[in-house]
## 1
Amino acid sequence: EVQLVESGGGLVKPGGSLRLSCVDSGFTLSTSYMNWVRQAPGRGLEWVSCISTSSTHIYYADSVKGRFTISRDNAKNSLYLQMNSLRAEDTAVYYCAGDSGSTDYGMDAWGQGTTVTVSS
Amino acid sequence: DIQMTQSPSSVSASVGDRVAITCRASQGISSWLAWYQKKPGKAPKLLIYGASTLQSGVPSRFSGSGSGTDFTLTISSLQPEDFASYYCQQTSNFPRTFGQGTKVEFK
């Protein structure tokens, strides 16, 4: 069973950087497509990025393309999101979410979220 | 990019009511659609995938239908724990776009 735990959120100034991490204590992350999804205060869910099991395929939302980098280390059962050139509109709760491969790409495993606040 | 449009944006209902939420895709996505439930301070929860397949552990009062561009999530008899926001998401193409959400509120 996938059990995801995010970390790395915090307060950062505009233009700054943060690196989010997501660790799977269930040791099945390596077999899942993994995503980052965010929810800004008072807003809906926004898909951010996805990485395939072997990191061969990587996708980004237009809103973060060129600023965010998704990566994974299957040996460490970990997923990462490097966020550069942060803007106020990146303020959100960030969730890592996995697609186990049996749900037609629906994300069936989620972390509890980590909060990123971009403010001067 | 595929745009997902949900309606209504909010609905007021009582326990026991039947609630239907619709989701329209800007282009055909076959059955590549998922529905999620989101409560404040909690992670989203997958309810339905493949437009109509109930995720394991989800109560049978939830159901999904549709294909192509028009989809519906139905809660047959609303329970107190169902007051939440609901989102559709297309899983056909990248970017994996969500609908804007529907908040189910207590009447």
## 2
Amino acid sequence: NAGVMQNPRHLVRRRGQEARLRCSPMKGHSHVYWYRQLPEEGLKFMVYLQKENIIDESGMPKERFSAEFPKEGPSILRIQQVVRGDSAAYFCASSPREGAAGTEAFFGQGTRLTVV
Amino acid sequence: RKEVEQDPGPFNVPEGATVAFNCTYSNSASQSFFWYRQDCRKEPKLLMSVYSSGNEDGRFTAQLNRASQYISLLIRDSKLSDSATYLCVVNPGGGYQKVTFGIGTKLQVIP
């Protein structure tokens, strides 16, 4: 049973380009959470999705960021027109049900985005 | 005041020492609490949940003080492999998981 898979592991983008980060949840998990971790900072919640639905995007910047979790395929976090301040590690976590607390949420290895 | 506060450290301790970290939270209605471990440039991994009565897992002991709104993690007989950042995580409750992570406390165990 594969864990949460994120790809790419490392992504380099020039300012103004688009970044697409993918997250495949664990088998049987239909709830996905995205977090951002800036250097020397804690993880910040960005968005919570279920299949085909965004449940809570209160942590997402208002512009340039979007997320989806289609019926088929991985969850995608999309950042348009990247800026240097977007450089960070982006982690996703999945859980099997709503309200699952830390014991049932598993993290992927993260995507490290570097904007040059 | 931050929702979850931790001393970022680093805490440098010799092998075999006992070390304790505290974490304070601001939302008195918070429902569940966890300690995660994060190795350098890796993903966070659940270390242990924190129960109201306190709980122990081998060399690790976690405690919750609701009155003072803090949780603690005690590590006995520190090993070199314990070197990592320890994240305090608080679930404020609600219908879904929207946990808040502390900045983490960095522990370096030295030989």
